[in-house]
């Protein structure tokens, strides 16, 4: 009979480095939770200058049953605060990774940004042959000749030997106001000396928005294969903890955020259901594509159909009256929606609501009809001239609701 300890010994010992400040403490813990849900035998090095000792004490207790531990690495290099940062949400803590050779005792370490979740065992990644490569990384999705620095497999022994810390600090002094932060500096130092990793080790979901802005339509097609096998999700761009976020895997981040440590230890995580295993979520879904805030009887429909998730999509920002609908937990807003939002929303809806006044957008009625999804509309809002839709007068909204309930009940019975 195998003991739990024997199983843990079989896992490869891994060193993982994270960095951040007090504002990112819960994000760092979410990243650690996701790693521990799939891995054991990890030494976590958390580089910081203001995380409280009590948090580390709690984390020690949580990690002990997982044959893992945490190291509190305090960095007090004041010069880092003077470096220019290319994005408003970035902290000077991003430069903490420069000091990995001084504090990490292992010869190989994985550095992860704290806007990341891990979805699988990482042993295979740690078995990469680094040879004389100082770093292995995934090519940046926007500039493929460079690497994204959010996930770095680091040859720590070589970094020590080549005094990489000193070179990085010197280069940052020279280039911090000319390149894209520490990522630009790292690419400058390791130009032609980085080993490419498969995109599955750094799936940059922020590209869902960037690709729209740069008209990179191929991203929405090509990334679908990577999505299925992605082991590390990197929330570049807007973060999943923002009130509104248009990129993929939002609910996955909240799933790991909400996991109890006891469930991680006991391996009781329901990865298939994800967030739905932790909270009550709507069983059904609908959508409204609109270019106006005038959506007929929308609040009444939301109130009467609490088991339906309402996705509202627009090419622009929303008016305050639409933003306020987020007080209902079954409402999701997609301002400036991208092609991936359309694909994902249409894949899951059970019916479509053609209840927006003014013009139709995104050729949505034809798109929905081609998928043979029922459409419910009002006489004052219907954009369908084919007779396909179920149309009601605005005064008969409750009759529409009953018809929708009948549809959903029939779907439930057929499952």
Average pLDDT reading:
93
Tell me the overall shape.
elongated
For the largest beta-sheet, the strand count, sense and barrel status come to: 7 strands, mixed
Helical content stands at 25-40%
Strand order of the largest sheet: 3-2-1-4-7-6-8
In the predicted model, the low-confidence regions spanning at least 5 consecutive residues are: 1-8
For the record, give the distance between the C-alpha atoms at the N and C termini, rounded to a whole number.
40 Å
**With helices defined by DSSP (H or I, 4 residues minimum), what is the helix count?**
17
| Structural category | alpha/beta
What fraction of residues sit in β-strands?
Answer: 15-25%
Radius of gyration: 24 Å
Strand count: 16
Please describe the topology of this protein.
Elements: H1 4-10, E1 14-19, H2 25-36, E2 42-48, H3 53-63, E3 69-74, H4 100-103, E4 108-112, E5 116-118, H5 123-126, E6 135-137, E7 151-155, H6 156-161, H7 164-175, H8 181-189, E8 194-196, E9 203-204, H9 207-213, H10 218-229, E10 232-234, H11 250-258, H12 261-265, E11 284-289, H13 298-304, E12 308-314, H14 320-323, E13 331-335, H15 339-348, E14 351-354, H16 364-370, E15 375-378, E16 390-392, H17 397-414
Helix pairs in contact: 2-11, 7-8
Describe the structure.
- By secondary structure, this protein is α/β, with parallel strands linked by helices.
- 35% of the residues lie in helices and 17% in strands.
- The chain is built from 17 helices and 16 strands.
- The chain has a seven-stranded mixed beta sheet with strand order 3-2-1-4-7-6-8. A six-stranded parallel beta sheet has the order 13-12-11-14-15-16, with helices on both faces.
- Helix 13 links the parallel strand 11 and strand 12.
């Amino acid at each position: 009979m195998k003991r739990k300890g024997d199983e843990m010994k079989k896992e490869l010992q891994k060193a993982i480095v994270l960095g951040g400040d007090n504002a990112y403490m819960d994000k760092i813990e979410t990243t650690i939770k996701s790693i521990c849900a799939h891995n054991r035998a990890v030494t976590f090095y958390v580089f910081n200058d203001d995380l409280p000792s009590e948090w580390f004490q709690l984390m020690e207790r949580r990690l002990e049953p997982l044959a893992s531990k945490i190291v509190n690495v305090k960095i007090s290099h004041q010069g880092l605060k003077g470096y220019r940062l290319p994005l408003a949400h970035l902290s000077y803590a991003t430069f903490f990774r420069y000091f990995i050779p001084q504090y990490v005792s292992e010869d190989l370490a994985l550095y992860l940004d704290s806007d990341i979740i891990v979805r699988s065992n990482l042993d295979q990644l740690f078995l990469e042959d680094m040879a004389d490569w100082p770093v292995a990384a995934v090519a940046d999705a926007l500039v493929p000749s460079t690497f994204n620095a959010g996930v770095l497999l680091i040859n720590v022994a070589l970094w020590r030997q080549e005094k990489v810390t000193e070179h990085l600090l010197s280069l940052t002094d020279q280039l911090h106001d000319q390149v894209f932060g520490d990522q630009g500096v790292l690419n400058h130092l390791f130009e032609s000396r980085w080993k490419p990793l498969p995109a599955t080790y750094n799936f940059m979901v922020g590209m869902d928005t960037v690709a729209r802005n740069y008209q990179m339509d191929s991203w929405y097609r090509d990334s679908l294969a990577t999505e299925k096998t992605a082991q590390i999700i990197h929330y570049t761009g807007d973060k999943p903890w923002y009130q509104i976020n248009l990129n993929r895997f939002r609910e996955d981040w909240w799933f790991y955020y909400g996991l109890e440590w006891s469930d991680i230890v006991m391996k009781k995580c329901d990865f298939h259901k994800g967030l739905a295993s932790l909270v009550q979520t709507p069983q059904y879904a609908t959508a409204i594509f609109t270019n106006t805030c005038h959506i007929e009887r929308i609040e009444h429909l939301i109130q009467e159909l609490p088991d339906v998730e309402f996705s509202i999509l627009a090419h622009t920002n929303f008016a305050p009256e639409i933003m306020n609908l987020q007080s209902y937990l079954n409402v999701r807003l997609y301002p400036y929606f991208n092609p991936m939002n359309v694909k994902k929303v249409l894949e899951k809806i059970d019916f479509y609501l053609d209840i927006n006044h003014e013009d139709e957008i995104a050729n949505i009625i034809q798109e929905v009809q081609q998928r043979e999804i029922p459409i419910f509309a009002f006489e004052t809002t219907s954009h369908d001239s084919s007779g396909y839709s179920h149309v009601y007068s605005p005064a008969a909204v409750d009759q529409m609701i009953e018809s929708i309930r009948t549809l959903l009940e029939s779907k439930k019975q057929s499952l």
